[in-house]
Design a protein that fits this description.
Elements (H helix, E strand, L loop, with lengths): L7 H29 L2 E3 H8 L3 H10 L5 E3 L2 E5 H10 L5 E2 L2 E2 L14
Antiparallel strand pairs: 1-3, 2-3, 4-5
Length: 112
């Protein structure tokens, strides 16, 4: 496409409009991503899950709950907690003990 000198102001105006639209869309996308990444503190996660601090500490030490640790403090991402809550079933954990159906008990006095 060939531009003439007299067409430049109009072409520049179009570019500026397109640039503004692109920047607006990027800002909207970033803002929506940040909304999903809400960071929760230990106190807030206790309130949301209605659990005691010691229970959360126990889950963290056993690796049962997704967490992040910075400068000695525990942090949780709301989206990770939602996924953890949806993914955990009573069949996968029985009082903190996981069951592996493929485990072999030969030679231990158990019948297969």
């Amino acid at each position: 496409m060939e531009l003439k000198f007299e067409d430049l102001p109009h072409a520049i105006a179009q570019l500026i409009d397109q640039n503004s639209l692109i920047l607006t869309r990027i800002q909207e996308a970033v803002a929506s991503d940040l909304g999903n990444e809400e960071i929760l503190t230990l106190g807030r996660i206790c309130e949301l899950l209605e659990l005691k601090r010691q229970t959360i500490y126990s889950y963290v030490s056993k690796g049962k709950i997704p967490f992040h640790k910075r400068a000695g403090k525990l942090y949780f991402f709301r989206q990770e907690i939602k996924e953890w809550l949806k993914g955990e079933t009573k069949d996968s954990l029985v009082e903190g003990i996981s069951f592996n159906p493929k485990r072999k008990f030969r030679g231990r006095g158990f019948k297969n």
